[in-house]
């Protein structure tokens, strides 16, 4: 932005002062407001009328005998967005004025440039950053007015995004991306004004909801309990090319990537964009003392005099190797340490954040006093590898950090559909290094730490010169999970006893955990018969409660109002999955036997259940011809005659499971034998004892 672009006119200056004052003191008498703004009463009234005509300010009557104090003012969503715009313009103007004054007095230039184009290292990492909240009084008025607005109930991921938009964690974003900003971010990691931003932050909604909204309309954004968190002025509405987004942002349009699967199978079809006005932050009842906004962390660092802060991003429990890694990173950077774990949404199957935070708290006292702190980040991760690393860096810069540890295969989602890693091990570090100056935060390379038995210490693997003469020990994540599942010893050189204790609370031996057996196959394939036989055998063994969620039983008792459209069949399976996840979470065994024809829905159920225990998919692979030959209910005959629409295998597709835990044939095979095959599989997985 050139110096002339930063110029703020006298009219804009007066409007800026008025909007700021009304936000601070909406109920003040006009005379007091005029004095605070520095205007005559006549000019103030004219300015107020213009602001009201433009939709920037709302006026309300207050009871009282003094006519001069009857009016109360509140900024509209549009007014709050305009105040934020003018704030940026005002700051840029002051910066340009200071630059000119310094040059006049000293004959030299400082080298500062206007706000929009300068990088954050030129700014104090401890100074407050912009938030999108209005004042408390304005928020109370907006809550009342928002009752008449069209409401959108946010998904858990959207709530995470909204919180970081409002508190400045996603600075410089002022709301959900416009179409122009979205296209720039997808194609080249830049907003329309050229600023670096690698991740699309979009409000995805259904087609029906999008069609009910007009451009320029304000909507209320609410959490899942109906509490209003913000309002949004809808400036853009479009249908994105999701395959293009997947290719550019995540590197491949492959449903094996959790974010791509979310994009295609869970996210709404239409995106809405526009500025938001924050009313209140989402309520968190857990670990409230550990949750800090960017400005709260900056104030904490400022109070303690921490000028350099290195952030450690983690979504896993901390073990001894992580402690040594963070020690070294802080020492190399000569910085204090912020342990900044993600507690929003991580990769399906990760340890739940309640357990992880207890693990973090258990090892905090292992760090030197007054050098380390921990704060929780309510971020919805995308597992986008290189782009995610840059994104994490920008977020940590907003939280006041000066250094950031970037790991090997940082935020990688694992294997793609071909069994290969989505990203190279150092792609994230390379992309971060390329943009490091612009991010405004310095990268600290992740060191792969291993335990050297002879020296009884952790060392970076690539710095060990005498590898042939020493014993190098390490335990992979897979091996750790196996040891936890089977109740095997976890050595103290690998992890802290306090951490292992917390993990064992959540992960008892696998033979005592809850799990779900999920049968899928054509109607008449034998799913229900085998499921009943399996239930009896498991009940005979005892030890855990067993619940059968058969397709017909669920239809009668849980989904009686649903039809057989794809939407309703998906909803029915998701209901079954939810009930099964609750059974599994509480240590029971759930046996499900629906048709479940769609792979994406089965994957959704798997991810929901695997948060709490094992998911065992059993494909009852009876051919459609054999099912039709059995046809005890006459359903196939009715489907052939067109009397049953969208019948699986006849007029609607069935996605054959690609990698089920078990596939059983039922033709010319006894039911008892099929159920026994399932028992043997459960035994081999350690879910039941021999």
TrEMBL record:
Documented EC number(s):
2.7.1.25
Spell out the molecular function terms from Gene Ontology. Answer: adenylylsulfate kinase activity; ATP binding; sulfate adenylyltransferase (ATP) activity
The ATP-sulfurylase PUA-like domain sits at 129-280
User: Which keywords, in A-to-Z order, does the entry hold?
Assistant: ATP-binding, Kinase, Nucleotide-binding, Nucleotidyltransferase, Phosphoprotein, Transferase
Q: Name one GO cellular component term.
A: cytoplasm
- Pathway noted in the entry: Sulfur metabolism; hydrogen sulfide biosynthesis; sulfite from sulfate: step 2/3
Domain Sulphate adenylyltransferase catalytic residues, every copy: 291-505
- Enzyme class, top EC level, equals transferase
Entry's Pfam families? APS_kinase, ATP-sulfurylase, PUA_2
Q: Which InterPro entries match?
A: APS (IPR002891), APS_kinase_dom (IPR059117), ATP-Sase_PUA-like_dom (IPR025980), P-loop_NTPase (IPR027417), PUA-like_sf (IPR015947), Rossmann-like_a/b/a_fold (IPR014729), Sulf_AdTrans/APS_kinase (IPR050512), Sulfurylase_cat_dom (IPR024951)
Function, please?
A: Catalyzes the synthesis of activated sulfate.
What name appears for this protein in its UniProt entry?
Answer: Adenylyl-sulfate kinase
């Amino acid at each position: 932005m050139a110096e002339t672009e930063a110029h703020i006119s006298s009219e804009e200056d007066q409007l800026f002062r008025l909007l700021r004052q009304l936000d601070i003191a909406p109920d003040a008498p006009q005379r007091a407001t005029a004095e605070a703004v520095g205007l005559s009463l006549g000019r103030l009234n004219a300015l107020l009328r213009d602001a009201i005509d433009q939709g920037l300010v709302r006026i309300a009557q207050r009871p009282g005998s003094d006519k001069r104090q009857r009016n109360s003012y509140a900024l509209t969503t549009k007014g709050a967005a305009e105040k934020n715009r003018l704030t940026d313009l005002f700051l840029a103007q002051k910066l340009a004025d200071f630059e000119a004054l310094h040059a006049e007095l000293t004959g030299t230039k400082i080298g500062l440039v206007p706000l929009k184009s300068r990088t954050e290292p030129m700014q104090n990492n401890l100074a407050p950053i912009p938030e999108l909240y209005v004042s408390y009084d304005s928020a109370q008025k907006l809550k009342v007015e928002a009752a008449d607005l069209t409401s959108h109930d946010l998904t858990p991921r959207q709530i995470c995004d909204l919180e970081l938009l409002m508190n400045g964690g996603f600075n410089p974003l002022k709301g959900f991306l416009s179409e122009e900003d979205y296209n720039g971010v997808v194609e080249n990691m830049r907003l329309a004004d050229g600023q670096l931003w690698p991740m699309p932050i979009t409000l995805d909604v259904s087609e029906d909801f999008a069609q009910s909204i007009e451009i320029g309309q304000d909507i209320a954004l609410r959490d899942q309990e109906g509490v209003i968190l913000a309002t949004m002025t809808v400036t853009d509405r479009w249908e994105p090319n999701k395959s293009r987004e997947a290719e550019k942002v995540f590197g491949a349009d492959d449903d094996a990537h959790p974010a791509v699967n979310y994009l295609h199978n869970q996210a709404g079809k239409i995106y809405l964009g526009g500025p938001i006005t924050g009313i209140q932050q989402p309520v968190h009842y857990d670990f409230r003392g550990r949750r800090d906004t960017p400005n709260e962390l900056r104030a904490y660092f400022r109070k303690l005099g921490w000028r350099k802060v290195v952030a450690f991003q983690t979504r896993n429990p901390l073990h001894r190797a992580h402690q040594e890694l963070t020690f070294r990173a802080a020492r190399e950077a000569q910085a204090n340490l912020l342990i900044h774990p993600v507690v929003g949404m991580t990769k399906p199957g990760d340890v739940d954040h309640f357990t992880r935070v207890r693990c973090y708290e258990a090892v905090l006292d292992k760090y030197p006093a007054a050098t380390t702190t921990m704060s929780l980040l309510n971020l919805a991760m995308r597992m986008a590898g290189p782009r995610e690393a840059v994104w994490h860096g920008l977020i940590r810069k907003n939280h006041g950090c000066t250094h950031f540890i970037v790991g090997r295969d940082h935020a990688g989602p694992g294997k793609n559909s071909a069994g290969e890693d989505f990203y190279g091990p150092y792609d994230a570090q390379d992309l971060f290094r390329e943009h490091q100056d612009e991010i405004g935060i310095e990268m600290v390379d992740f060191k792969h730490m291993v335990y050297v038995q002879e020296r009884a210490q952790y060392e970076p693997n690539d710095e060990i010169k005498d590898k042939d003469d020493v014993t190098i020990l390490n335990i992979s994540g897979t091996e750790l999970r196996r040891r936890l599942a089977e109740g095997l010893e976890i050595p103290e050189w690998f992890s802290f006893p306090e951490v292992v204790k917390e993990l064992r609370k959540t992960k008892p031996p696998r033979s005592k955990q809850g799990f779900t057996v999920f049968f899928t196959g054509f109607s008449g394939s034998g799913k229900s018969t085998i499921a009943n036989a399996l239930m009896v055998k498991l009940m005979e063994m005892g030890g855990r409660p067993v619940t059968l969620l058969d397709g017909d039983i669920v239809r009668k008792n849980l989904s009686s109002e649903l039809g057989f459209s794809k939407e309703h069949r998906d909803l029915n399976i998701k209901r079954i999955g939810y009930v099964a996840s609750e059974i599994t979470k509480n240590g029971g065994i759930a046996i499900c036997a629906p048709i479940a024809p769609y792979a994406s829905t089965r994957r959704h159920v798997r991810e929901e259940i695997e948060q709490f225990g094992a998911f065992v998919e059993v494909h009852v692979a009876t051919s459609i011809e054999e099912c039709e030959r059995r046809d005890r209910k006459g359903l196939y005959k009715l489907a052939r005659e067109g009397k049953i629409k969208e019948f699986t295998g006849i007029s609607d597709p069935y996605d054959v499971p690609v990698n089920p835990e078990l596939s059983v044939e039922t033709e010319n095979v006894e039911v008892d034998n099929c159920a026994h095959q399932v028992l043997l599989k459960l035994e081999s997985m350690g879910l039941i004892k021999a």
